[in-house]
Amino acid sequence: MTQYGIGAHGEPVISATLARGYIEEHAERPDFVLLDVRTDEEIEDAHIPGVLRLDILSGEFQQRVNQLERGHDYLLVCRSGNRSGYAAAMMLQLGFQRVANLEGGMLAWLRQGYPVEEGAVEMG
User: 75, 83, 89, 122: which has the fewest Cβ within 10 Å?
Assistant: First the structure.
C-alpha cells in the first residue's frame, strides 16, 4: 500500500486522497479489507462504501483481530484516525504485514467530499 507517512502510534498512514484511489483500485480484490473500527452508531451515520466493521471499543476486538487473515491488505478508518491508528499499530504488533491507517479518518474523507453510505455494515 502506498504510504503517506507515519502516524502517532507508529503506524503507516495514507491520506484520504491516496486512500480513495487505492480503495477504487483494490475494492474487488478478495485480500483487500477496508475496516472501520468505530461504534455501530457512528458507522450507521456515515461510512465509506465497502467497509467491514470491527468496533475497537468492544470487548471482543483483539479476539476478532486474531481471527483475521494476516496476509491480507488492511486499510483502517475511524472518526479522526486515532482509534484506527491504535488498531493498526496493534495489528502490526500481532504480525500483520500490510496495514495502514486513513490519516484524519472519516473527518478527512468527508472534508474531501468523497462518497459515503448510511446504514449497518457487516462485521469484519
Answer: 122
pTM, rounded to two decimals: 0.92
Block residue for cell numbers 484516525: 81
Q: Among candidates 60, 84, 63, which has minimal Cα distance to 74?
A: 84
pLDDT of residue 5: 80
90 has pLDDT over 70: yes
Quick check: is 20 catalytic?
no
* Domains along the chain with CATH numbers: 5-111 (3.40.250.10)
Three-class secondary structure of residue 73 per DSSP: strand
Catalytic pick among 37, 65, 78, 87: 78
Whether the per-residue pLDDT at 51 is higher than 70: the answer is yes
CB 77 within 8 A of CB 105: yes
Answer yes or no: are the C-beta atoms of 108 and 7 closer than 8 Å.
no
Give the cell for residue 123.
462485521
Residues shown for the chain: 124
Give the model's pLDDT for residue 3: 60
Whole-number average pLDDT of the chain: 92
